[in-house]
Amino acid sequence: MFGLSELAIILIVVAAVLAIKKLPELTRSAGKSARILKSEARAARDADEPGTPRVIQGETVRREDPDTGTGTGTQDTPRG
């Protein structure tokens, strides 16, 4: 009969054959997850340095005037 190692190899081959259709979607999802993890790690590292400005893509932020505490009316444009 079959041993445990032969059965494991057969199961891996069957799983690979059945999952081949989903492989592009899985790799795309893994790439997105890796990019999110990388950006979160970078944000956590940058949070330790409070003097450095952060650029958040897609948002417009008003700067406050340090003398009065009110906005200056100028807006930063996101870099892309």
TrEMBL record:
<keyword id="KW-0813">Transport</keyword>
<feature type="region of interest" description="Disordered">
    <location>
        <begin position="31"/>
        <end position="80"/>
    </location>
</feature>
<keyword id="KW-0472">Membrane</keyword>
<feature type="compositionally biased region" description="Basic and acidic residues">
    <location>
        <begin position="37"/>
        <end position="48"/>
    </location>
</feature>
<dbReference type="Pfam" id="PF02416">
    <property type="entry name" value="TatA_B_E"/>
</dbReference>
<protein>
    <submittedName>
        <fullName>Twin-arginine translocase TatA/TatE family subunit</fullName>
    </submittedName>
</protein>
<keyword id="KW-0812">Transmembrane</keyword>
<keyword id="KW-1133">Transmembrane helix</keyword>
<keyword id="KW-0811">Translocation</keyword>
<keyword id="KW-0653">Protein transport</keyword>
<dbReference type="InterPro" id="IPR003369">
    <property type="entry name" value="TatA/B/E"/>
</dbReference>
